[in-house]
Amino acid sequence: MFGGESNPPAFPGRVDTADVVHVETLTGALRTLDHEYGGGSCREAAIALLDWATPMMSADAAGQVRDRLSVAIADLHNLAGWASFDLGLLESAHAHFGRAMELAKKAGNSALEADILYRMGRVHLHYDLAEDALASFQRGLPIAQASGSLLAVSILHANEAWAFAKMGAERQALRQFARAQEEFWNAGDEEAPPWARFFDEADLVSIGGIVHTELARTCDVKYARSAIPLLTKAISTAGANSSRSQSFRYAALSMSHLLTNDAEAAHDAGTSAITLSGPIRSVRTRDRMRPLKAEAERFTGSRAAGELAERLAQFVGSARGAA
Question: Is the pTM here over 0.90, yes or no?
Fold first, then answer.
């Protein structure tokens, strides 16, 4: 992990740009592992890297190098917090996000501050605390706007839409998602910081599909029909190394098919979600399939729905994600 050496090197008495780049590069590699294989694939390594890199904060460094190091360590805490959340370790997640915010503020990096608030909001959203999630996203918006990153603004508007959809606030959900789309396209070729590069067109369309799926559950089942092409497009256009996101998309697609009474299509999409999640070390993948399991169990008179419910019960009850 540390440049192929058997033991991590001692931190230098004076930190230069190359040392910071080393931390940034390793963080990027760990983030890729998280995105593909879940928080369990990288959390321990992220914490080990923090233990090694944090003492650099006490070393001599030029002002610009020190600021860049603060951002690098903040982003590493941000990743450790996200990986902890993915494994259901909420106390650890909040501690890492808190430290990440302190360092991002100290370095004056408002784009990273906005990203941390987005991720904290996603924790609330995952546990159906939609109002708390919305408050976090709304706190992040003016910070994202001040940073000048239209991509960061788009991310927060998209997740506002998700929170509103969970709350059954149809008009607000659709309005905020339209804003997310507008800001995303206005961002154009904006150079995204490493923590925001996950948010591509597939991810934007995916959240749109999930917003419509949630609206189908909370407002009007008609939204399931519009969710299906959005989720299908997101799945077909997603890049490599996105197994966890793809599993979430297939789960939402399966839910929408159930809501439109197409049990066969729901079975196929749900099976794909389970298959993709097999090697992923993530508690979230199981949590996100619990509502699908409940919906499949309510679906009567269909062998396909019954088989899906059984497979989901096995999957949700397994311990693979916590490993």
Answer: yes
